[in-house]
Design goal:
Blueprint (H helix, E strand, L loop, with lengths): L1 H36 L13 H16 L2 H10 L2 E4 L1 H8 L8 E5 L5 E5 L5 E6 L17 H22 L1 E3 L7 H17 L8
Antiparallel strand pairs: 1-2, 2-3, 3-4, 4-5
Length: 202
């Protein structure tokens, strides 16, 4: 009985060998064809663990060259930038006190948060997105964090009304934790106090 089973297995192996060899040959041919049509290694979109770090480094340098010294220090130390509301900037232009009635906190990859400067009351969060259209993101669809902050800063300082009109507006708490935002406002006030900057938030 055992001898008969071994004989059958040997016959099946002999008969199946050409099929196995043929399939292996096809797999090898397909692999060679893929290799011959492939471009340079950089076109294979291999994961580069340093790519995002280098992109963020360049983005930080660009942000630093565009914003003022206080805004850069704020971002460097706290991770966000405060942008005064448009009406506050007009008041400064007319020789007013410069104390903005409202302002925004600009975070990387998070909604813009509007708040009342004098009281720290949270008003709204505005969801805006600036996708990476450069084609240099290695498959990512988001800008580096500092580029995202710069895009929002530029949009708010150049055409605040358009940004607010086109954004998805929600009460604070939709995406951002109100307690965290209030803590950031407290951190901002403490940061300004240490730098001897007149406080604008509580």
């Amino acid at each position: 009985m055992l001898l008969a089973l071994l004989s059958l297995a040997l016959i099946a192996l002999v008969l199946g060998t050409p099929l196995i060899v043929r399939e292996v040959g096809r797999l090898r041919a397909r692999r060679r064809a893929r290799r011959s049509t492939a471009g340079p290694l950089d076109e294979l979109h291999l994961y580069d663990p340093g790519r995002e770090r280098r992109a963020e480094g360049r983005a930080r340098e660009l942000l630093r060259s565009c914003v003022n010294e206080e805004e850069w220090a704020m971002y460097r130390d706290l991770g966000f930038i405060r942008v005064a509301g448009k009406h506050a900037r007009r008041d400064v232009d007319r020789g007013g006190s410069g104390a903005p009635p409202y302002a925004y906190l600009v975070y990387p990859h998070k909604p813009i948060v509007a708040f009342v400067s004098g009281t720290g009351k949270l008003l709204s969060e505005y969801c805006v997105e600036f996708p990476d259209l450069s084609g240099e993101s290695g498959g990512r669809h988001r800008l580096p964090a500092s580029d995202d902050v710069l895009a929002k800063w530029m949009a708010l300082t150049s055409d605040e009304d358009r940004v607010i009109r086109r954004a998805n507006m929600h009460l604070v708490g939709r995406q951002l934790d109100p307690a965290r935002v209030r803590r950031d406002l407290w951190r901002l006030a403490e940061w300004e106090r240490r730098r001897n900057v007149p406080q604008r938030t509580k």
